[in-house]
Write a structure and sequence with these properties.
- The protein is built from 32 helices and 7 strands.
- The longest helix has 21 residues.
- The strands form 2 sheets. A 5-stranded parallel β-sheet has the order 2-3-4-1-5, sandwiched between helices.
- It has 5 domains: 138 residues, P-loop containing nucleotide triphosphate hydrolases (Rossmann fold, 3-Layer(aba) Sandwich); 95 residues; 76 residues, Winged helix-like DNA-binding domain superfamily/Winged helix DNA-binding domain (Arc Repressor Mutant, subunit A, Orthogonal Bundle); 81 residues; 129 residues.
- It is 66% helix and 5% strand.
- It is mainly α and 677 residues long.
- Helix 22 packs parallel to helix 24.
Length: 677
């Protein structure tokens, strides 16, 4: 159980360090691996965490902090790392403490140096709140809190005292230059000299290996000797820093001019870099758009970039070097602005494409670029408030489904607090804030924002704005347990707007609220017709969000009217769609219904298991009501039926086993299981 990154290159040596970390994790609750950039702290921590997995029944969880430039997103990044997507209005720190309180897990925080003080405070609080928590961190400096056990990570042994650096060189060289005869005596001697000159620093060795495509080992040795001799100032370039500075600087010099320019411009990115994003942000001047893709490939071949899926990632040390050159080129301000405006455009395109066949792709795109979207918003909030509020409104609904409710609320409230002109962009931001507040259970604030959104929409005289306001208000009333009011608001908006608004995204969203309200009012025949019609409209658009909720309601109606097999089919369809969208709230709702359908068919043990998995998702999102309020009594009836079928002992065993299991594994089981004949 956990989320450790998958690394495709082999791990070389470090047996002594791994043994020390293993002992330290047995004796201390906070272990920090310290060392200079490029020395291999992250890779060592990953290997140690993987080896320790069996000791932690609740898993090993990894949070990468390398993209953080301040502490605003620290806690939410850690929440993401442990799989917590809290939907409540609590502070993220409070939600995280509660989530970890009764768990026995290992939390790895990688690259803490940028947010050192805040990271230390957070770790101190978490260790106090969660007795079963152990934390392993990597940092260029210690966190400096009580109970911290530091282990310095040295470079790999090189030269006469060991051969781990040589082994690393040989392993990476086999990929970079597979035809190189490493056993040739002259080559072997040169390899040993390279590793000795580079002081065994792993990143420096990997960068040197990348040179083997165009230089011999003897040529590399000669260049290193001359370059290192030039760096004689020990005060400025301590021993290990000199080796890494030499390797990075040499790699930079050996890049073509356009590759160096791209390296510098890529430093504005925070997360995984897609080719299209690099083309949009980094092209200009001598670096044409067509030159970006091949230059990315060459930078990856030189180990400046790492391939991650279909994109690229730059190590923090190399990003810092690129940022230094970007400032030297006096392009840092203009590139930050281009980066921000590009991702604002991505958010706008996603919002415009929400109601269509690319909906799933846009959800994934917004989730995958989260770090860069946050960086863009931070920049625009300072430089262009109008663009910031437009962007915040566009990301609102996506972030609510992707589990980023706290970020959505913070960014939208920051944007709306700025002096802004009235208009549809501000109205959309109010709508997104109202949805966010409702999902967090802050209904009083949501009603206030919904009414403000409604007043703004009337001023806009825009059909989509009016429907958005109705959606926000009716959704809040539905979640407050007032389905009649929710129905009245959504139905009035749907009936009194022109036919031209029927293809507006919020038209579909209002239909979902009206459908839920009909079911809650017991008007099941009307609800069935509405759900069937909604499903047809959804299919015509090729979207999944509304279709999933149509399936949810069809499952509920079939179940209430005594057709549990039909209910199970629709509940599974709903789960599949919500899983595709990574919508944890929708998954939790679907699991509740699926458990009821299975219980109604007499399989109490499987119903208990499904309900236990649902409990895991409800805990993960911290939802205060487990969905719409009127389902509470119905869930209790399904649970009683399941207990009677299975017996209390078997029910409790299956339920607790599932609720303690990995959420994704439990969901996979629920999706795979078929109804018994």
């Amino acid at each position: 159980m956990g989320n450790l990154p998958v690394v495709r290159t082999s791990f070389i040596g470090r047996s002594g360090e791994l043994a020390s970390i293993e002992r330290a994790l047995e004796e201390h609750r906070l272990v920090t691996l310290t060392g200079s950039g490029g020395v291999g702290k992250s890779r060592l921590a990953l290997c140690a965490a993987d080896r320790a997995e069996d000791r932690f029944p609740d898993g090993v969880w990894w949070a990468d902090l390398s993209h953080l430039h301040d502490d605003q997103l620290l806690t939410t990044t850690v929440c993401d790392g442990v799989g917590l997507m809290d939907h409540s209005s609590r502070l993220p720190e409070d939600a995280l403490r509660e989530w970890l309180a009764d768990r026995r897990l290992l939390l790895v925080l990688d690259c803490c140096e940028r947010v050192l003080a805040s990271c230390g405070n957070l770790v101190d609080e978490l260790l106090a709140a969660a007795p079963g928590l152990t934390v392993l961190t990597t940092s260029r400096q210690p966190l400096g809190i009580a109970g911290e056990h530091c282990l310095d990570v040295p470079p790999l042994p090189a030269g006469d005292d060991g051969d781990e650096a040589v082994r690393l060189f040989r392993d990476r060289a086999a990929t970079a230059a597979p035809r190189l005869a490493l056993d040739d005596p002259a080559t072997a001697t040169a390899v040993e000299e390279i590793c000795r000159r580079l002081e065994g620093v792993p990143l420096a060795i990997e960068l040197a290996c990348a040179r083997l495509r165009e230089s011999s080992t003897q040529e590399i040795t000669g260049r290193l000797v001359s370059r290192l001799d030039a760096l004689t100032d020990e005060a400025r370039w301590p021993r290990h820093h000199r080796a890494l500075r030499t390797a990075i600087g040499w790699s930079h010099e050996l890049c073509e001019p356009l590759e160096r320019l791209l390296w510098a411009r890529l430093s504005v990115f925070r997360g995984v870099i897609g080719t299209a994003d690099a083309e949009a942000v980094c092209s200009g001047g001598p670096l044409t758009c067509d030159a970006i893709a091949p230059a990315l490939e060459r930078l990856a071949a030189r180990s400046v970039l790492q391939r991650v899926g279909e994109g690229y990632r730059m190590l923090d040390t190399l990003r810092e070097y690129g940022a230094m050159w970007l400032a030297e080129l006096a392009e840092d301000t203009s590139l930050a602005d281009r980066h921000a405006r590009h991702f604002a455009s991505v958010a706008a395109q996603a919002h415009a494409g929400w109601l269509g066949p690319s909906q799933v792709a846009w959800y994934r795109r917004i989730a995958d670029t989260h770090a860069d979207l946050c960086a863009a918003l931070d920049h625009l909030l300072a430089e262009d408030p109008e663009k910031a509020v437009e962007m915040a409104g566009c990301t609102g609904l996506f972030w609510s489904c992707c589990g980023y409710l706290h970020q959505a609320r913070v960014y939208i409230e920051r944007a709306l607090a700025l002096p802004l002109s009235p208009g549809p962009h501000r109205t959309r931001a109010l709508w997104a804030l109202g949805i966010t507040l409702t999902l967090q259970g802050d209904h009083k604030a949501a009603r206030r924002v919904g009414e403000e959104c409604n007043r703004a929409a009337r001023r806009d005289q825009d059909a989509e704005s009016i429907l958005s306001a109705a959606h926000s208000i009716s959704f809040t009333y539905l979640m407050m347990g007032r389905p009649q009011t929710a129905h009245s608001v959504s139905d009035h908006a749907l009936r009194h707007l022109p036919d031209s608004s029927r293809d507006a995204p919020s038209h579909m969203r209002c239909r979902v609220i009206r459908l839920f309200a009909l079911s809650a009012l017991g008007r099941l025949d009307e609800a069935y017709e509405e759900a069937t019609r909604l499903q047809q409209i959804s299919l015509s658009h090729g979207e999944h969000w509304a279709r999933a909720y149509a399936d949810h309601q069809l499952a509920l109606i079939h179940l209430l009217q005594g057709r549990p097999r039909h209910a199970e089919t629709h509940a599974r369809a709903m789960l599949a769609s919500k899983h595709t969208l990574h919508d944890s709230l929708g998954i939790a709702l679907g699991l509740d219904l699926l458990a009821g359908a299975i219980a109604a068919q007499g399989d109490g043990v499987e119903a208990a298991r499904t309900s236990g998995t649902g409990h895991t998702f409800w805990r993960m999102i911290g939802h205060p009501h487990r969905g719409t309020p009127e389902l509470g009594a119905i869930r209790e009836r399904w649970e009683r039926h399941a207990r009677e079928s299975a017996g209390d002992t078997a029910y409790e065993r299956a339920y607790h086993r599932a609720s303690a299991d990995d959420a994704e594994r439990g969901l996979a089981h629920a999706l795979e299981r078929q109804s018994s004949p």
